[in-house]
Amino acid sequence: ASPPAPSANRIRGRPSVHPAMSPPENPNGGAAAAAPSEPAPPAKPSSSKGKKKDDKKDDDLSEEDLALKEQLELYVVRAQDVDPGVQRLALESMRQEIRSATSSMTSVPKPLKFLRPHYGTLKSYYETMPESELKKYMADILSVLALTMSAEGERESLRYRLLGSEGDIGSWGHEYVRNLAGEIAQEFQKRQGDDMPIDELMELVQQIVSFHMKHNAEPEAVDLLMEVEDLDLLVEHVDSTNYKRTCLYLTSSSRFLPSPDDTLALDIAYTIYMKFEDLASALRIALLLDNKSIQYVKQVYTATDDLVLKKQFSYIIARHGLAMEIDDEIAADENDKEMLQEIVNNTKLSEGYLTLARDIEVMEAKSPEDIYKVHLIDGRGASSSLDSARQNLAATFVNAFVNAGFGQDKLMTAPSDSSSSGSSGNWLFKNKEHGKASAAASLGMILLWDTDSGLAQLDKYLHSTDTHVVAGALLGIGVVTCGVKNDCDPALAILMEYVNKDDSNIRIGAILGLGIAYAGSQKDELRVQLSAILGDPQATLEVLVFTAVALGLVFVGSCNEEIAQSIIFFLMERSEAELAEPIIRLLPVALGLLYLGKQESVEATAEVSKTFDEKIRKYCDVTLMSLAYAGTGNVLKVQKLLGICSQHLEKGETHQGPAVLGIALIAMSEELGAEMAVRSLERLLQYGEQNIRRAVPLALGILCISNPKVNVMDTLSRLSHDADADVSMAAIISLGLIGAGTNNARIAGMLRNLSSYYYKEAAHLFCVRIAQGLVHLGKGLLTLSPYHSDRFLLSPMALGGIVTVLHACLDMKSTILGKYHYILYIIVLAMQVCI
């Protein structure tokens, strides 16, 4: 089918007509424009105008394009020839032209552009063709032309594809395959709704997925399979060159999928990683799949005989805080089994931490004065060496945070000439009442993770006649064993003796100690014991509140219905006066911890919370929602919480504080969400009510915890001088949180200036000291970030600890600045060595 020889008409820029051609029909059914040699029929002015336009278009075409246009028009005519041989040749030529043009697509390919006017003609002719190979050829061409010509929603490209020949669809180009994938998704939904067969669609899906996977378009393949609900198909199409990109897309998109699709996406990613023996990545996915964690983790272990790899897996599990038993299946050799169990239990964590400290020469103990650096402050406040109880209490916390895990300091463990306990005894009694409890507990923080030495040194305080000292020692036992598991359970044996003592301070110390020591362990023995205390009519309100908090920490993220019921009944039975107590706000937190990150699982409990007394109802509802969706990035929940923050409240309502914290908790999962949340919080600062402004600094603190971003630092610095005392104190504490364990020089400078600025304000100065201690946490070797493994995994125990402390900070004057300052020790759950 060679093109006709150039004619006079052609040279003048008009199309020539092949003598064997009859004028083709146009898409509207009428005859095409008459040949130039015939007189033009009379036409309306508008159509002659259109004709002039067409002539102008033809004049604009280059000679090559004009030749191609004429050639394609000739093929259209020949394709309708009565002779099957001519038809076949025309269709083959047309296919060849389209294919060669679509292989490199930058704009609409010329063959498709020139064939557009003939789409209707070819469609009409196709319907008249008898069933044959040629009809299938014609369907293929119509399927490609429908790419640019088909009406919206008609899915003609797919219809003709299914009627066409069973060839390689990739040869028609990427854009065609993409368009087909989109139409398949729509057709699949329709067929499922009408209960029609989908087999032929799935055959096409196989081809498209295979094409995408070979051409680095893994996200498009995954999207298509999600649409047609057949993600399992992915496993057979991935290879060693593209499995990492595929799994990365699956894990990233799982955050935005509804349940149970999110779990399915992670399941497929786990299967693919196991297929290509990328076991460390498979383990991370296994830890993300809560309900299947233990089963999948064991599969990862048994997939290799390499002991070094198994050690690496054990370190990842220990960092995440998963309680796991190493059995014979995982390691047959007794010595290997013992070694792996030690790593999982964090038994050698203290040893490794101290080795690191010696290697980088930071073992020397630091005193609070080394942190305050008073000599760098000019003028007022520089010489404030008042030996007040509040200042000593602040120094206790600073000393505990800075020397955390080092086993030595200059206040509690410094050797004295007279006796080994002389110095610590001296410092202990420089504190008053509840301050002694925090001072005794600080020894647990200094000896963090070193259970043998820690329990031995704390034991002497258990025999004290001062109940506050005993309570502090019990809390210290919980702190020192935090995150370290032991077959003998020494903490459980010691603390259980004191849980039912008459003195409420001792009870609180023992109960909170158990909550910290066994956070996330879901120990049934503790459930029985602590639930019994919740039903004890003799117990004081504060004992009951801390019991609920301990249960929340031990069973964090477990959705344990029994404990939830106990806390709900306890809340329902409270009197008006008890509900007015500031400490009561920790009860909704305890309930929320049970559902931390579990999304829809909280709905039944949230419904029940709507029946609570109106004083606590909204507070509980908002807290439950914010904790259940913590770390999920759920945009709809963030919008809902922003809506709550936009309301103007009656006096006395406090539920907007947890709503602000909830925005930060939900949005903290990924960088972009956190950035958007920071902007939203800036707006709340400008337009929000006073109780919202008080919570904003704390929300900023959790968004950037142990990650001092300059813009957030500047905002908090500005707020630390706010006229409202609660706002400025929250901002000061948050400066400590964002700089926690970073030794950030700029934040340290800001806090020194603040200590000079607030030298007459005891409460503000206390907050400044706490923040200074946090910034120098573990001399810069520790972090409070609940995320690990490249921010992929979120430790529920760590987040639970941070959330409890932040909710306590919402009413700082009654908690941290009152007699409940020991709540700050719960932050130990989030302390981890920086890796």
TrEMBL record:
DNA repair among keywords: no
Biased composition annotated in UniProt, kind: Low complexity: 27-37
Species: Aegilops tauschii subsp. strangulata (Goatgrass)
Database matches in SUPFAM superfamilies: ARM repeat (SSF48371)
Job of this protein: Acts as a regulatory subunit of the 26 proteasome which is involved in the ATP-dependent degradation of ubiquitinated proteins.
Record-given protein name: 26S proteasome non-ATPase regulatory subunit 2 homolog
Pfam family, one: RPN1_RPN2_N
RPN1 N-terminal domain: residues covered: 72-376
Self-association state and partner proteins as the record states: Component of the 19S regulatory particle (RP/PA700) base subcomplex of the 26S proteasome. The 26S proteasome is composed of a core protease (CP), known as the 20S proteasome, capped at one or both ends by the 19S regulatory particle (RP/PA700). The RP/PA700 complex is composed of at least 17 different subunits in two subcomplexes, the base and the lid, which form the portions proximal and distal to the 20S proteolytic core, respectively.
Segments of this protein annotated with the region Disordered: 1-62
Keywords assigned: Proteasome, Repeat, Ubl conjugation
Family according to the record: Belongs to the proteasome subunit S2 family.
InterPro entries registered for this protein in UniProt: 26S_Psome_Rpn1, ARM-like, ARM-type_fold, Proteasome/cyclosome_rpt, RPN1_N
Matching PANTHER family: 26S PROTEASOME NON-ATPASE REGULATORY SUBUNIT, 26S PROTEASOME NON-ATPASE REGULATORY SUBUNIT 2
GO terms classed as biological process: proteasome-mediated ubiquitin-dependent protein catabolic process; regulation of protein catabolic process
Segments traversing the membrane: none
Any one cellular-component term (Gene Ontology): proteasome storage granule
Annotated GO MF terms: enzyme regulator activity
